Hints:
By secondary structure, the protein is α/β, with parallel strands linked by helices. It folds into two domains: 5-123, 3-Layer(aba) Sandwich (D-Maltodextrin-Binding Protein, domain 2); 126-216, D-Maltodextrin-Binding Protein, domain 2. The chain has nine helices and nine strands. It has helices spanning 18-22, 41-57, 72-80, 93-97, 99-102, 142-151, 166-178, 190-198, 212-216, and strands spanning 5-12, 30-34, 61-65, 87-92, 114-123, 126-129, 157-160, 183-186, 204-207. It has a five-stranded mixed sheet. It has a four-stranded mixed sheet with strand order 6-9-7-8. The longest helix is centred in the N-terminal third of the chain and has 17 residues, at 41-57.
Amino acid sequence: MQRTLRLLAIVAGLCVTTEALAQKYPTRPVKIMVGFSAGGPVDVVARIVADRLSNKLGQPFVVENRAGANGMIAAEGVARADADGYTILACNSSTITLNKTLFKDARYDPQGDFAPLTTVISAPLVLVVNPENPRTANISTVADLVAAAKAAPGALAYGSGGNGNLAHLAMELLSQKAGIKLIHVPYRGGAASEVGILAQEVLAVFDPLSAVPLVKAGKLR
């Protein structure tokens, strides 16, 4: 089972004056806000993009992490910033496409407050467990995980990068299709949920491709 993770770069504001268009952009540092913790997939991609843009355009592109609420804290900050192109949002697709439908307190309009720039990357999610955790040591397949969950309904916890995060929705979809009940533990980003499964706080996680090196090293299965 896979869910597509899309990282979007969104620039706040739709109104740019003729005078601003006539100027060379950028003429000063640009802030890229990331709604997830440092070291996670959104953060890593944002820093790669920031580095390339800094070298290409001759002005610093500075990444600022405002983690929490599935990217809503950063999105709100960008939505309230001056509409001059100097505050950019890097997020996964759920921050723009899902949060407004999932959270009544989302204080930004995905369509009205942002002008989309580009999709930077698309990648699948990977379902992983910790082979060093005694409770998941014998789980090698999705069928094994489903059987373990059915044997202990409502007792097994899984992690995600936050409420409404794609990893959260992916696991809920699996639970629905498999007829199982799991406990959701939301973290402040994908990197934090990865730490959670390594620390044996949760039993399973839908992880982005950043999990592959840990799988190859035998830390995750």
